[in-house]
Amino acid sequence: MTWLITGGAGYIGAHVVRALREAGEQAVVYDDLSTGIAERVPSDVPMVVGSTLDGELLARTLAEHSVTGVVHLAAKKQVGESVDLPLHYYRENVEGLRVLLEAVTAPSASSSVSAFVFSSSAAVYGMPDVELVTEETPCVPMSPYGETKLAGEWLVRATGRATGLSTASLRYFNVAGAAAPELADVGIFNLVPMVFEKLTDNAPPRIFGDDYPTPDGTCVRDYIHVVDLAEAHVAAARALRSSPGTALTLNIGRGEGVSVREMIDRINAVTGYDRPPVTTPRRPGDPARVVASAERISVELGWKARYDVEDMITSAWSGWLRHHPGASRT
User: Fold this and answer.
1) Largest Cα span, the chain
2) Which end of the chain lies in a sparser environment, N or C, as judged by fewer CB atoms within 10 Å?
3) Active-site choice (89, 90, 145, 223)
4) CB 156 within 8 A of CB 169
5) Class of domain 2-175+223-252
């Protein structure tokens, strides 16, 4: 199959492109480069620069490249920013998805897309009061970002029912690590690069709130290596191809909770630093604990995470040093 990967020049997207190609699939990247980096895309992979709000360009891209499947990762994804800019998030994440699905399923479309993989998020769950979050755990998102991801799942599922499109909504937990230094996360939005930035700037890492109802008072999260995440996309893509009409909703996590304080301690240990964190006020929209049950994806796709937290930190650190060669250790 030929897969269109929206957001394929992004951190996760570039790993998905790599994994699909290693699995023998063809890839086409569609990215507006607002946060993506063109150099992440291999030179022999076609790339179209454009917005998912541009229906005409999407339709032309699908047809010109004979696309038969879509992996939709393009989205705005910062929880705090979504609280301040909800209209922007709904426009980019929900309307952009609607326009893309319209291009994919239009009766006049000359493409023949039969499978659609949607990048969702554990943010759909909000603040679940359970030890492990299953796919049946009620979804009560705490931020506009989480709301847009849940609305996206509804839209994808409804479109699949109406048109016969095979669909999978993959609920990511916290992604870290890198397959290679050049593919590392260079944005300062997620915990691991945020801690790296503080350490190499000779500043203490920050903890956003230490009064949560958790063992050490800091938020607990489930971290997943980006390579494992990309391989889960390949497994989902294969499942949709082999089972027309399929509709999957799956967690992608490891089932292991790690607190923010514990994660910072592990980062200090791997990088050789010894800078205790400082505590600042909570951020809006942060739940206390969200840890996945990964049982369903194991049963449905035969997928299981292979890498641990130390693997994530070590590979991410190699990438950080590549992109920040002057990083200080003093």
Assistant:
1) 62
2) C
3) 145
4) yes
5) alpha beta
Rounded CA separation 152/98 (Å): 8
Report if pTM > 0.90.
yes
Rounded-to-10 torsion of CA 2, 24, 174, 201: -100
- CA neighbor of 240 nearest in space, from 170, 304, 171, 292: 170
Rounded Cα–Cα distance for residues 32 and 25 (Å) = 23
Does 145 qualify as catalytic in the annotation?
A: yes
Helix-strand-coil split of the chain, %, nearest 5: 40, 20, 40
Within the chain, all domains assigned CATH 3.40.50.720 are found at 2-175+223-252
Specify whether the CB–CB gap between 42 and 25 falls below 8 A.
Answer: no
Who's near 276: CB < 8 A, 6+ residues apart? 204
Judge: domain 176-221+255-292+307-323, CATH 3.90.25.10: yes
**Average pLDDT of the segment spanning 241-270:** 95
Q: 223 and 54 in contact (C-beta within 8 Å)?
A: no
Q: Where in the chain is the domain with CATH 3.90.25.10?
A: 176-221+255-292+307-323
Using a 10 angstrom Cβ sphere, with 0-12 exposed, 13-18 middle and 19 or more buried, the burial of residue 203 is: exposed
The distance in angstroms from the start CA to the end CA of the chain is 50
